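Handout, section B. The chain below has 355 residues.
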Amino acid sequence: MRATDPPTDPLGLRARTRRHTAVLLALGAAALLSALVAIAAGAVAVPPGTVLRILLHALGGAPGAGSWAPEQEAIVWTVRTPRVLLGCAVGAGLAVCGAALQAVVRNVLADPYVLGIDSGASCGAAAALLFGALAGAGEHALPLSAFAGALAATVAVFAVARAGGRLTSLRLLLAGVAVGYALSAATSFLVFASDSAEGARSVVFWLLGSLGLARWGPALAVVLVVVAATLALLLLWAPRLDALAVGDETARALGVSPSGLRTRLLVVVAACVGVVVAASGSIGFVGLVVPHLARRLVGAAHRWVLPACALLGAVLLTWSDLVARVLLQPQELPIGIVTALVGAPFLLHLVRSAP
């Protein structure tokens, strides 16, 4: 190329694309490595090479059966693999929903819990654990009751935000806070109204989150499918999210209806968070912390932010669950304690750096 020729990439778009692609590939590798470490580590450690052979044998029938103990196969495939998969899905779901909500309400401190969905799920779970709500569902009573509570909270937030005017970011934020406080009070009332000390302890543990109920089966499949579908939809709407994050006037100028888009996003995010919370309990700070980290790595465009959030969320929750399992073994910490220890200092940093 001659010195007088114009540059082929004057805005650096291809360079940024290559850089962001490399970041996503690195995050994908980190997620896979984190999953392998989490499956191998625990109260009973299994060598990583053995873990790989067991996984390859279980997934594709690769030869090698008999070169490991049956107990190792049970630990790796039956106990830890579904738990790690659930952790990856929960972390990814909470993170991408947090990124979407921060665009919806244009508030960097927003996360999935700004809608009050976790409070609704917690209230439903307390009703199941303490008073046998949906007892006819058997072992599915807890997740179904939590999911029903999450849906009820979503409907309440939507109704309050829509009352007397169009759906705006401020109305959503205020409605979510109000409904969340009301449902938290209802959960506390249920705990005090119950005379079961063991039930109250179970509620408190569930409120702080746990992946201990992860098993192979329809429940895990539902979480994986819902999180994947949510990510796909949000990626499809990524340009609209970019416009909405700038402001309603900009969105309208680009042909995007802010109120209609917020409604669709609210429904999608509520469904995802409801399913996730029903499966894992209330886990905070993932949806707050991860989107900020993703933006520092790949910029503000949601077509890059959303996949980065999914991978970072999976990594964060995988390691948080590993710490929760091994820190005080044989006892298990609620995973929400670990994520709060990570997220609280980050929130303080955001507050200090705010103008």
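Note. Residues 70-105 form the longest helix (36 residues). Compare this with the example in section A.
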